[in-house]
C-alpha cells in the first residue's frame, strides 16, 4: 500500500531491523511522491485527515511506530509504550497503586489524558466514565503500526482531539499463523510478567479474516522490597511521615478544662505518652509498588467485497481485565478532628482503659463533667488484613459497516457508512473496610451491643503483622464489610463519510471529505450501599448516572495553490470545519487551516492553526459527591498566633495543630459544565537531503492554549488562597471549633485553563556497512512553557502558575525529554540500544520546617520559614536487546530494561513511594525474553 512513500520504507526498515523500541523508532511521515509514482499508489487516509490521497504527507506532524518496535522491548502494555514517547506527559499506569485503578492512559503534551483522542483503525475507541481510554485493553499483538498526531484535530474527529490523536492500525491482509511468548522479571526476583498470544489470518482477492487471542499476567512488587519506597519519605528519620493510626492505637483526648492527653496503647491494655515521630506507624512496606493484572483479549476482523465497488467490514473486540491495588490495613479514624459525631467510647466498654466516657458529642460532655472529648482516635486494623481494591472489567466493542467507490464524471468518490457499539462494565470489590455505624455501636454502651454486635477492643496493642492483634475474628465479622461497586459506560454511533476529487485546478486536484455522525454516550457508577450512605471507613461516594448525545457534520478541503515553480514544487492549503450539537451544553464549531509548502525534493515546510474542544466527560458531569483524603499541608497550622502574616488564619486557636496530613476533601460533578475550548499552532519543516541518503530531519514548534478548562481548583490551592487573602475560596473550607479542617469542597467547574509551548525534533539516519545495517533515531520534545491558569470563583481574578521544569502533585514536567535509539541488523542477528533521557525538574521541598529541609532539599531556604526547593536531576534509562532468527519461522529475543540499574529521582512532593511513577520506572533491572513464531 505504501510502496512509494518514505512511510512505507520506514515500516519496512523497522521489520528488517527489529527496531530498537516503539519509542526509539518514531519516524516522521515525510513522503513526497512523484506524479508518475503516485498514479500507482493506492489512495489512503493518514491520521489527521479523512481525505484519501496518494501523497500521504500532510500539513500535520505525524510520527509512526511499527509493530516490530512494540514487540522488541520488554513492555506488555501499549499504554506503557506510548507513555515513554518524549511528547507524553505524566499519566496514570499500573505503577500507580494508591489512586490507581488498573488503567494506563496517554497524555500527549501533559495537558490531560482526556484531551488525547484514541482511535483504532480511524474509529473512536470507547473511553471510560472519566473520558480517558484504557490502553491496557488494546493487545499489542493485533497492531500493525501506531500513528501519533501531535496537533489539534477536532475539526476532523470531534471532541477530545485537543493535544493530539493516537490512531492504532491493526494487521490487515495477514495470512498464516503467528504466535509469541514473553516472560520477564526484576533482578530482585519479583514483578514477573508474562504475555502469550496467537493469531490466525487468511485473505484472498475478495477479502480477509483475522482472529487473535492474547493473555497477559503481571505480578506485583511490594513497596517494602525497594529502599526508596519502604518508608513514607525516603531519607527521613524513623517514624517520620508515618500514620497517626498505629496498631497499638493513638488516643488524643481533651478534658473539659481543655487539658490535652495525647497517648498510645502500651501493649498491655493501658496507655502511655505518644512520642513524635517514634510512635507513628510506617504503612509504606504494606503497599504495592507495582500492581498486578491479568488481561485476556479476543479480537477479530473481517472484510469482504460484495462487488467490485462495495465491501462489508466488521470488527469485534472483547477484553477482560482483572487488576488489584493494595494498601496497608485500614486506619480507623474517629474524633472531632474529623468533624465526627455519634461516637462514644463507653466507660463500661470492657476493654476501655478509661473509667469515664470519651465522646465526640457535646450533649454527652454537657451531661457528664468527667467525660472527655474524643479529639482523635486512630487505630490500624492489622487484624482485618490489607485493604484490597479489585477490578473485574469487561469491555466489548463492535464496529461494522459498508464502504465503496462511486464513479462519476470520470472520478472516484470513496464512501463509507459505519455503526459502532461499545460497552465497558467494571465490578469492583474492596476488602478491609469498616462499617462506622457498627463501630460506634461496638465501642458504645455494652447494654446496646446485642445480637450480632460484639464489643470492640481498640486497646491492648498489636504487632506490626498482617492478620495479628487483639481484635478477634468475631469483632471483625461485625464491623468489617466487603464493598461491591459497579461502573458502566457505553458508546453508540452512526457515521457516514464521502471523499474524492471535485475538480482539477492548475496546481492539481481540489479534494474533499465530508461526513455526518450521531453519537450517544451514557454511564453510571453504583457504589456499595454502605459507601453511598457515608458510613464507611473509606471514601464515601454518591451514585453517578447520566447520558448525552451529539450530532456532527464536517467538511475538509485540500486545495492545491501552486506547483512546479521556482522555489515552489507544491503549495497546498488544507481547510476543515466541524459543527457539533450536544444535548447537554449546546453547539460548537471548530475549524482548522493548514499550509504545506514543498520547496524542493529535499525540504518541506508546514504549519497549521486549529480550534479544538473537549466535551465534559460523564464523570465530570454527573458524578455524585465523594470523599477524598489527599495529603495536604494546612498553612494555618499553629493558628492565628503562629501565622500573624496570614489573614485567613484569624480566629483559629493557637493550640491548633494539624492532626493528620490527610484532610477530608469533597469532590463531585457538575451537570452545568460547558465544553472546553482550545486553540493550537504548529509549524516546522521536514528535511530529507538527497545528498545524504537515509537522513531525515523534522522540527516542529507547538503552541496550545486551553480555555474554559474543566477542573477542580485544587485542595491545596484552596487552603493557600484562603490563608493568604482571608477571602478568596474561604467559603469552600469548613473548620471545626478547634481550627481543624472538617471538610473542603473541591468540585468540578469551568475555570481557568492551560497553555503549553515548545518544539519537537526527530533525526533519523539509516546506513549500511560491511558489518551490518544501522539505524540511528533521535527523538525529543522541549517544553518552553507550561502554564496552569487558576481563576478564583469569588473574585474572578486569575493566577498563572508556570509548571515547565517543575515536579509535584503527581505531575512531572521536564523541559526536555529525548530518546536515542541505535539499531543494528546483520544476517540473522539484530541488536537494539535505547537511551530514554528525562530532564531535570525542580519541586517545592517542605519536609519538616527547617531541620530536614536543610538536610534533604538540594536548595534549602536561607531564612527561617522560607521556601525550600529540591532538584530532580537529569537522568537516563538504558534498555538493550539482542535478537536472533533461528529460521524463517522462529525468532528469539533477550533483553534488559534499565541496564545500569538506575534509580528514580527522589521526590519529596510526590504522593507516595518518594518518586513519581507516572514519569519514572520502579527501581531494578528488568530481564525478559520473547519467542516469535510465524507460519
From TrEMBL:
Pfam families: Plug, TonB_dep_Rec_b-barrel. The keyword Ribonucleoprotein does not apply. This is TonB-denpendent receptor. SUPFAM superfamilies: Porins. Residues 1-31 form the signal peptide. Belongs to the TonB-dependent receptor family. InterPro entries: Beta-barrel_TonB, Beta-barrel_TonB_sf, Plug_dom, Plug_dom_sf, TonB-dep_rcpt-like. One of its GO terms (cellular component) is cell outer membrane. Its main location: membrane. It comes from Alteromonas mediterranea (strain DSM 17117 / CIP 110805 / LMG 28347 / Deep ecotype).
